[in-house]
Batch of 3 targets.
Target 1
Amino acid sequence: MTLPEDRWLDHDAGPVVRPYALIGGRTRPIGETLDVIAMIIAVRGISLDPVGLEPEHLAALRLSSLPISVADLAADLDLPLGVVQILLGDLRERSLITVHYPIPPARLPDPQILKEVVDGLRRL
Amino acid sequence: MDYAGSDRAGVPVSIKILIAGGFGVGKTTLVGSVTEIRPLRTEEPLTEQGTHVDMLDGVERKTTTTVALDFGRITIRENLVVYLFGTPGQERFWFMWDELSRGALGAVVLADTRRLADCFPSVDYFEKHHLPFVVAVNCFDGARRYNPKAVRSAVDLDPDVPVVLCDARLPSSGRDVLIALVEHAIATIKRNTELSAGALAP
């Protein structure tokens, strides 16, 4: 699928129409809004009923065959974050994706993880 | 919630760091110095004046336009990824900050001593939301002519908030700023844990 270049989406373009037509004019996802760094994984091995799904839903599913963050998905799909959050809400509602919510830093199971981040940054 | 457990196997742990500061202070430069920038489009509400003319049937109260923010990804190791988000500089984008700052490890507030006041709103925001942050003074010409002490005093920072000098164009400098932030966040989390443990003690 080729996504349009969306050149009309510059700063002077005014209200976004097409992405919201894509999601039926909705402005809120079904269920909780997904964090930008929530990790999305498509559920494998299920028969897909495409009724009610847009090509963008299917593109999001294809891109999440391996774990991918919501932000990366939005960039890959070249769609606004809010639109992608709604698309993913639909997919979650249909149990087509698994969502791994980010763990708040203070509740990381292993505090060593943050030290690993420091060490990793030092190696940059 | 899918917190740590066997079902997380193979799923990266993702950590979020915000890069804030006034317009044109070097946020994009900083993100770009340590990682490849990807544009993330998002929406912003139209101004009040625009609301009545932009109302469309079926779009309900959707009165937004699109802005792009920068994000970058640093893979620390397999299944450990740090995401950097350059927050939109102007105050009218603060609705985005609430979403971005939720669950964030912390923030870098970039400051330019020629326009120090531009960083005040970011500092206020992160203080109010109890998010660990460091102030990074971007020395545009590379000259270390700014005194962190003077900046600390001018911004009226809490004593534990680190102030570092940087040149956002240099990867090594951007990296050091991030390290300062993560170390500060580790210390803050440790202190808060000890405080809450103390509060629970008989």
Target 2
Amino acid sequence: MGRFFLIALPFAWLLALFLVPFLIVLKISLSDIALAIPPYTPTLDLTEGWAGIRAFLSQLDFENFTFLTQDDLYWKAYLSSLQIALIATVLTLLVGYPIAYGMANAPDHWRPTLMMLVILPFWTSFLIRVYSWMGILSTEGYLNQLLLWLGVISTPLTVLNTPTAVYIGIVYTYLPFMILPIYSALERMDASLLEAAEDLGCSRLTAFWLVTVPLSKNGIIAGCFLVFIPVIGEFVIPSLLGGSRTLMIGKVLWEEFFNNRDWPVASAVAVILLLILIVPIVLFQINQQKQREAEE
Amino acid sequence: MRRLTWFNATSLTLGLAFLYLPMLILIIYSFNASRLVTVWAGFSTQWYGTLFSNQGFIDAAKVTLKVAVASSSVATVLGTMAALVLVRMGRFPGRTLFSGMIYAPLVMPEVITGLSLLLLFIGIGLDRGIFTIILAHTTFSMAFVAVVVSSRLMTFDRSLEEAALDLGASPFDAFRLVTLPIIAPAVISGWLLAFTLSLDDLVIASFTAGPSATTLPIKIWSAVRLGVSPEINALSTIMIGIVAVGVIGASLVTKRAALRREAEERAAVQG
């Protein structure tokens, strides 16, 4: 009895509020937009029994998905989301690796403090952290003021509302997700391996490439997936920092729903986004599994 | 390995400066007297005054706190139950589906979660408001609680619980008196994580909130879309301050607890 209750309660909750909503999205993505409440057709009428269900099913079609392939806004948005996520992941790795390396090589009694300093921003509001860059990057912002004062530039740079601002925002907010797995891989590394490499005639840089980087490979892979996967569907960063020229699919979905009120197309956008995400998520799972097996 | 120290020191300094300078600038300019946010015109606390006299922000803060307390508490109960199911219950029909549904919200884009829940609420005719935001937040944050608690349960020594059962405790008493006190730190950090996620959420709340309930992130969002504003700087400073005090306080408390435990263990060994 206790066992049944323990399993049934969270199971029922997840079925009702996680699985069923997805089935509804899937169903609406096959429907047509209509000027009605709710704004799509057909709606299922169970009072007519089997005939109602058959009539309902016969009206579902893949029209919205064909529409997504015809209008180049959508596939451009998917491609541009993947491209932005890929470039941003590489940039986050380039910024995050030296920090993780510095943490792993810091004196022992500093490490808990450094760890807390890296995690602390993660607990503060994501929205506020993205917002803080608006004041820095705008035309009359602090960055331009500083550069003008230093005499590096003579006219203000346009950074806000460009892809550059989006990259800065992503690197800034997702940095802890990159640093922590790399740090935990580097921390477990045996320092004598580096000494051995150097005794055998490697230069410091060669030893870094041939010993440190391969040994932190798992941390790098985990960090890259942890940044890449959520960035593809990102909405807040492109909306606040990217301006109208930055195309990302999360933003397109939002606008399709709230501005155009086209629920069927918004649902179709969501279904395709999910299908795209399955590939990196499965790869990530396989990688984690392999890592666990290697550790045992 | 402790060489290259100049390199390590530089990368740490630059890295931490990158992480903290934007927030520091925000805090400094929240005390700016000028409405032109990027021009410094002397020290003033006037934006805190206008913030606290703005009823819209105060109402939104109340809604946000209610939602966060309710959703994180329900999510902690459900997430802990889910963790027990994942780690303890072995095989049962639908187990793969169950664990899939636990882990999926962790990687799901918020726009999809928000859209799907909104379509559900409209489909069943539930009026959108505080209640629907609580349902939505509970669903995605229980996954985070389940992950935190199940990783603690995996390293848990089951013989303690078996001893209690052998000594005649009921399964529920064994859980309440033995298991729960041991996994309590994980349960508490799960609750804190769920609470923060709920406080922070803009996207899912925007989809599931009706006109009757506006949360703080939604309020901030509609203000900052128009550009930088001094009231939002003041509000951000307050929020950053609360989090900093909370996180540093929590780490001091755990540190002290660990020291006390060590001292007690030493005393017990010597005693």
Target 3
Amino acid sequence: MKTSRVPRLSSKEQLVLELLIEHRTPMYGLEMVNASRRRLKRGTVYVTLARMEEKGLITSQQEDAPPEAGGLPRRVYTPTVLGRRLVDAYARLARLLPEFAR
Amino acid sequence: MRRRLIDQVIADWHFEHAAALARHDQWAARLATMRAVGACARVAVYCVAVAPLDAFASDSPRRVAGAAVVATVAVTMVIWSISIFALVTGAYSMDVTILNVVLLFVYLSPTAFVVTIPVGLSTGVLAACSRPSDVRKARIAVVLLAVVATVVSLTLSLWLTPTTSHAYRELARPVGGELRINAPGSIGALLEWHQGWALLGANAVLATFALCAAAVTAPQAIWVRFWAGVASVAYPLLYVPAGVLALARVVPAVFAAWLPNVLFATAALVFVGWNRTGLHPTRSAGSEPS
């Protein structure tokens, strides 16, 4: 039997999407770490973001190079339509089925 | 992927560092540098160790198998490091050449694997199964792995270990002869014989212990898994005090040999009971899901 491929959402991915949706404007990694009140770590946030981008939940864009020479440009992230729908679906599911949410 | 992850950590550091310097806050700039070094280290660990494992293992059973292999190798390397320590501190009087050191590790490995395979299996299960659904998917695979591990351990114990242990002693030539073989019929030999059988049973006991610990759904389940992992790694150390008691004839040798397994089996039963009694809030009505 072939099963349908519904994207899975880990708690970290859900938190990232919620932050991005709440913020409304694109965010960069460190900004998300600061906004998450230490629930996201700077050592792992980019791994999570890269995985989410591969899953099509977010898109990224490189900022322009910083005005002073020597710095690397940062990458900013925005949620995709799929990401928004998925976080919405998970939130509804968690409300409907609290017993099975874990 | 690797470069892209590291680049972003560095970009963050540049901005944070520059902002701190603009505020003339030297300590904040130093803190930003330290944090960036820590973040780079974590990304490096991910790229070197975690990402290949993730790519290999797309489902729970394969993830458990992969994690068990990695954990077994890691624990074996810890045991190797004890031999390196003995070499460096001059506890062995062998000629230190590359060939001899390689041979030392080769001779040590079968004995080490008898201990490290059950420990690796247990920590692998705990690392790969982060929720009860993972345990449900992986439990058959874990049972099969435990059976295979027991057969491998039995083969090593019966055919390889006696020869390689002897070769290890001959090669290492420990100063003071502290690696002597117990005299036949002595309490030490009896203890060693029982411990050999107890270590074979360790594969099943530790695998069951890990599955039961990973299935715990308490709010702090991650800490249950963490401490269960620590306990699994410390499992071989339990043989030391139990053996001392047996050698002092305080407890029978068979009891001392099987005591670690009995303790871990009891802990597994406690985890099962913990889940069945529903002490965790997710099973109580109206609670918030986490």
